[in-house]
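Internal tracking record. Fields below are filled automatically when a chain is submitted to the structure queue. Please do not edit lines marked as system-generated. If the sequence contains nonstandard residues, flag them in the REMARKS field before resubmitting.
Queue: standard
Priority: normal
Entity type: single polypeptide chain
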Amino acid sequence: MGKTTAQIQKNASLECDIAVFSNMDCKLDSGFNLKDFQIAFKTFGNLNANKDNAILICHALTGDQYVSETNPITKKDGWWSRMVGVNKPIDTNKYYVICSNVIGGCAGTTGPKEINFQTNVPYGREFPAVTVRDMVKIQNYLIETLFIEKLFAVVGGSMGAMQALQWTIDYPQKIQNVIHIAGALKHSAQNIAFHEVGRQAIMNDPNWNKGGYNKNNVIPERGLAVARMIAHITYLSDDGMHRKFGRKLQSRDIISFGFDADFQIESYLRYQGRSFVERFDANSYLYLTRAMDYFDLEKKFSTAIEFSPIPNQHIRYLIISFTSDWLFPTSENRKIVKTLNYFTRNVSFTEIETDKGHDSFLLDEPELDSIIKGFLDNNYNKIGSHE
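SYSTEM-GENERATED OUTPUT FOLLOWS
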């Protein structure tokens, strides 16, 4: 693929940049040829003269480009503001941070919610299926448009970790370091099952209308809220829920003998569902969960004939897992480490003890902060002067 450029525009309402690509020949894994598309992205810090301080952060399933500062959609802090910013572990005084909304998302990048430039109406369910590999291909278009030849690091947790691994397969010559947090070589049968229940909740909502709910100016909010509630349980842990909620009642002294939210955990999950509906598109949820389900690098990582020819010997890997994460458990992360060790790649691994579950990487976890900061800063110092 040759060098790619696009027209970059400021979007006032989304408070981000939009890279607009026209008359492209972007063939997705499904076989669909995406001619015209756009990428919504944010940058933080400054790219130095050597262009050797760029970090791409890949977001998780329900994330977006608002990794730091204020999200204009939710009016809350960005989803990783505690990690990215001035004097934060990923210090924007030192690094140039890029974060884009993935293809199929709903925060400005081309997806089912956005306008199909060929028809001038939203894609809806006419949007093609996407994969994690497609997400990374689109990100690479953006990196080329920004005239960055090599990324200092690619960082991601959960679905973002999948993207980070995919970068090491598809564009190894363009990255130096990878931080993979709470991921796996493939999406497990259990995880696919949870996603399917969530998708069925959405598709069985009377408002879904086979994905054409925008035509009726409605959204399948009940189904989407239930899908979020189901998924959110998988991001927690039993010990963490016991510590935070236990069996405490919500705004009452005795049980109601009914089906209101008697318990705090019930109220919490209902809140998660309601707030999610306000910021996320139901069709995007279908597409992105499906992309995660299709993710499977096990063969490519586990066989010499697939892995050995990939020129990724120079990449430094940091693999991080959490003791209470049962969605992407430590055992799955160790498989990655074992494979990289077998092929004599430069890999470090750490398991952080916490009861916060899969969402630990998004929450206040000081050990995670120090590990990420140390890995990045130590490797940055090894590559000499930075101008």
